[in-house]
Amino acid sequence: MEIERKYLISDLPEGATDYPYHLIEQGYLSTEPVVRVRREDDSYYLTYKSKGLLEREEYNLPLTKDSYDHLILKADGHILTKKRYLIPVEDSDSLTIELDIFEGRFEGLMLAEVEFESREEAEAFAAPEWFGEDVTFSGEYQNSRLSRLA
């Protein structure tokens, strides 16, 4: 089960891009249900996600590079590319901000996601000051939806 909150970011705090990051490329074979292929650095995955906004089922299956290269060509819509910075949440031993800075078609878009162990933890989360609008429940910024934009 994936439980996460998502925020639109307009201004980065100083040092946000000094943290470790992953290079991500992903495409969608289906958006209902969500079936995605992703390259994250030198790892490859096929992911299934159920419907939902705050909470959804998620299953990741490893792929070989050859399988990924074959499947990404079958993706519907746009291929998304981004850098994902991993920023520890202050005063938390377990939470990490995943700051996505998009490249290519969506250059300039920045989103922050935080994953939680429980719905209660997600609902109690106090976002850092630099976070913008909470877009968790709009669905507007789900990557599967972005992939379909004209």
What's the arrangement of strands in the largest beta sheet?
A: 5-1-9-8-7-2-3-4-6
Task: Compute the number of structural domains.
Answer: 1
Largest pleated sheet: 9 strands, antiparallel
The low-pLDDT segments are none
Radius of gyration: 15 Å
What is the first-to-last residue Cα distance?
Answer: 30 Å
Helix/sheet category? mainly beta
Indicate the proportion of strand residues: 35-45%
Q: What name is given to the CATH topology?
A: Hypothetical Protein Pfu-838710-001
Overall spatial form: globular
Listing every helix as H and every strand as E from the N terminus to the C terminus, the arrangement reads: EEEEEEHEEEHH
The portion of residues assigned to helices is 10-25%
> Counting H and I runs of at least 4 residues, what is the number of helices?
3
CATH class wording: Mainly Beta
